[in-house]
Design goal:
By secondary structure, the chain is an alpha/beta fold. The chain has one domain: NagB/RpiA/CoA transferase-like (Rossmann fold), CATH 3.40.50. It is built from eight helices and ten strands. It has helices spanning 4-22, 33-43, 56-60, 63-70, 84-93, 121-127, 146-164, 170-174, and strands at residues 26-30, 49-52, 74-76, 99-102, 106-108, 113-117, 132-138, 142-143, 189-193, 201-206. The strands form two sheets. It has a six-stranded parallel sheet with strand order 1-10-7-4-2-3, sandwiched between helices. The chain has a four-stranded mixed sheet with strand order 8-5-6-9, sandwiched between helices. Iron/sulfur cluster (SF4) binds next to helix 7 and helix 8. Iron/sulfur cluster binds at residues 154, 158, 169-171, 177-180, 182, 185-187.
């Protein structure tokens, strides 16, 4: 018997899948991170070149490790890069990958994915390059409107990510966005993904709190 929270999540998941399909995304709802991991693995064919952005979601759920463990993929792992230059080489190689994995900083209830980026490599790869982009998104990232999703990205995700990387931004000091122009700003790019051109994007929604 599902709990009331599980019921709510599955109903919200079904609604979000419909909204995403309306925007030409391939979309799935998975109740747990384990189910989502199985789904993503199924979506990636043996022999694919796979890489990812800085998402905590895909790391925390063990997905990056699982992809290494398959042994049938070419994995470009920025986490294993030896220094900034090596990482930047992987960022560039990502444009030729078969699959780019990421999460989102937020998503609106009508299916718009929101990402903020300081460097721009993640939103660049989401926009163009890798043949497919798979977004794994916990329901904790869902906000009622696009405006609320952008606010979530800047007032919830940004301060946590700034702390995580030790970046000195005003939001790190008090947890609130100051619309800063700091040289270390992590909101240089604010990206809205409204539709999935050519069905390039897949969204795997997860009924758990994942990432920030
Ligand atoms: S304070 Fe700056 S870095 Fe922090 S969320 Fe606002 S614009 Fe982004």
């Amino acid at each position: 018997m599902p709990t009331p929270i599980e019921l709510r999540n599955s109903r919200l998941g079904a609604r979000l899948v419909a909204q995403l399909q309306r925007r030409h995304f391939e979309a799935y709802y998975c109740a747990t991170a384990a189910e989502a991991m199985a789904r993503v693995n199924q979506l990636i064919a043996d022999g694919s070149t796979v890489t990812w952005g800085g998402s905590m979601t895909i790391r925390d759920m063990g997905l990056t490790q699982a992809l290494h463990g398959r042994g049938t993929l070419r994995v470009l792992d920025r986490d294993l890069a030896d220094g900034r230059e090596a990482a930047e080489r992987i960022y560039r190689q990502a444009f030729g990958a078969d699959v780019f994995l990421t999460s989102a900083n937020a998503m609106s209830e009508d299916g718009v994915l929101v990402n903020i980026d300081g460097n721009g490599n993640r939103v660049a790869a989401i926009t163009w390059g890798p043949k497919r982009v798979i977004h794994v998104v916990g329901l904790n990232k869902v906000a009622p409107t696009v405006e609320a999703a952008v606010a979530r990205a800047r007032s919830t995700a940004a301060p946590v990510n700034a702390s995580r990387f030790g970046i000195d931004t005003p939001c790190q000091t008090d947890g609130v966005c100051h619309n800063c122009h700091s040289p270390q700003c992590i909101c240089n790019y604010i990206h809205l993904l409204r539709n999935s051109p050519g069905g390039r994007h897949v969204v795997v929604l997860v009924g758990e709190n994942l990432g920030y």
